[in-house]
Amino acid sequence: MTSNSEATRLLRDVSGRVRETFHHDRAILSYGDWFDRVLADPAPNLRSAPQYIRDVFDHFGTTTRSLPHGDVRRFSLFDAPWSGGEGRVAGQEHVQNELYRLLANFARDGKVSRLIVLHGPNGSAKSSLLGCVQGAMETYSHTDEGAVYSFAWIFPSEKIVKGTLGFSDRAASAPTKEDSYAHLTAEQVDARLPCELRDHPIFLLPRSERADLLQRLRDERRLPDDFVVSRYILEGDLSPRDRAIYDALLLAYDGDHAEVLRHVQVERFYFSHRHGTGLSTVEPQMHVDAEARQITADRSVANLPRPLQTVPLYELSGPLVAANRGLLEFSDLLKRPPEAYKYLLATSEEATASLPQFKVGLDAVLIASTNEKYLEAFKEHPDWMSFKARMELVRVPYLLRFSDEIQIYERQITSTTVSKELSPHVVEVAAMWSVLTRLKASDASRYGEPVRSIMKRIQPLEKLRLYDDATVPDWVAATDARRLLAAVKQIRDEHRNDTYYEGRLGASAREMRTIILNAAHHPEYRCLTPLPVFDELRE
């Protein structure tokens, strides 16, 4: 047994590391200190959500894959390096590049004006793609270059500030670490109200002053020439509750803006999907994406200064609120009745959420997923054209390369997961069979000779190998092989505009994993071989 002294020492060591991590991660700044950082390095401190996520893509870097249909850029974040590759996305480089292109467009336009919709068959990695982006955002936000800030209101106790209204009567001065309330201890604070929307601290500067500041940074070339200041930074405003607090403080201090800023505590936050910090998911069964409730009579604000106790204050909640400054995922969006997401027409274009009491400004990238069945049905809906104008459709088909498909099963199917000895080639056979079910016969008439004659004769397995590693069928003459290889991209794109494109139908990796795991329990086989897998396929 572990001795009490050893247990005490171990707990002390753990507590010390927790304390060290806490102080390293929880960057608390006065408004003046944060403003110093903005002046020193404006661009990363003035990023909008699409600019931030684009920088996440860039942070993890890219590699170039040489494939039979040409070189393609792969973003390394989809290899999930933060988890040792757990949750990585095999293939799908076209989708990765489409996402990056759209983020770059949003950043260049200075606003998010579209709802990105990933559509494809069930099990084509739509959720996995978004999971990698969310995991990358969480990891990047813990780096120095990924720092992102919001703020809270600090109201000191009467022991710290004496005055008839609980406000100080100090002369106006720039709030610094020494005279800001940001660094008071818990015992010295009567109330702390964090901004639920995690609004950008720049909103505490009036718009006119904000515009002058940004122009000055541009004139002094502190901002890169290609940096586009987003509409969110230029025109954004405090949330209704924070605006009410700001106005009440400004009134109480007779317009002394410096005194108002003394109550501001700027705090770094970290993206977290689990805790709903800048990342959130709306499931199909959820119907309320943002709501507000009045908290003026709530005990949590009982210790606010008297002038604020008479101001109507509201508490915001919901996925739209949780995802502000980051990314909001709508899982299986079109499973909900159309009336449930009509608000997205305005939200995706104006970056606002309309509540009964007021409008809330948002800065978030909105990405939805749906399968082809629901998308095709929605195209018949009377509102389809209105939504289409505000959507960016990104197709996510099944994989068509055997080498990519096998990577999925190699991680998921092992001797440990099947609890049985695994014979060679089980995952290879499963991956090959999956891809074969997805391929479509080519229309030879679309090609000139000699490719036309080859496509008339080519068999499914030969087409699989052509896609996979540019292996040409043995019966193709050497002179014709070069023409065939030059046409691989055309062959892959042949069905791109068809309703039933290549990669829409067939076995999904999710289905194949279930089949393999079921085959592992086959009573007639002592180990898992391709034979029980084929037995399960017949079933």
Question: Topology of this protein?
Answer:
Elements: H1 4-25, E1 28-30, H2 31-40, H3 42-45, H4 49-60, E2 62-67, E3 70-75, H5 93-109, E4 115-119, H6 126-140, E5 148-156, E6 189-194, H7 207-219, H8 231-235, H9 240-252, H10 257-262, E7 264-269, E8 279-282, E9 291-294, H11 306-309, E10 314-317, H12 319-322, E11 327-330, H13 344-350, E12 352-354, E13 359-361, E14 365-370, H14 372-378, H15 384-388, E15 391-395, H16 402-412, H17 415-418, H18 426-436, H19 451-457, H20 460-469, H21 478-486, H22 488-492, H23 509-519, H24 530-538
Give a quick precis of the structure.
The chain is built from 24 helices and 15 strands. It has 539 residues and is α/β, with parallel strands linked by helices. The strands form five sheets. A five-stranded parallel β-sheet has the order 8-11-14-4-15.
If you had to describe this structure to a student in words, what would you say it looks like?
With 539 residues, the protein is of the alpha/beta class. 41% of the residues lie in helices and 14% in strands. The chain has helices at 4-25, 31-40, 42-45, 49-60, 93-109, 126-140, 207-219, 231-235, 240-252, 257-262, 306-309, 319-322, 344-350, 372-378, 384-388, 402-412, 415-418, 426-436, 451-457, 460-469, 478-486, 488-492, 509-519, 530-538; strands at residues 28-30, 62-67, 70-75, 115-119, 148-156, 189-194, 264-269, 279-282, 291-294, 314-317, 327-330, 352-354, 359-361, 365-370, 391-395. A five-stranded parallel β-sheet has the order 8-11-14-4-15. The chain has a four-stranded antiparallel β-sheet with strand order 1-7-5-6. It has a two-stranded antiparallel sheet with strand order 2-3. α4 (49-60) packs across α6 (126-140). The longest helix has 22 residues, at 4-25. The protein is elongated, with a radius of gyration of 29 Å. The model is unreliable at 163-177 (pLDDT under 50).
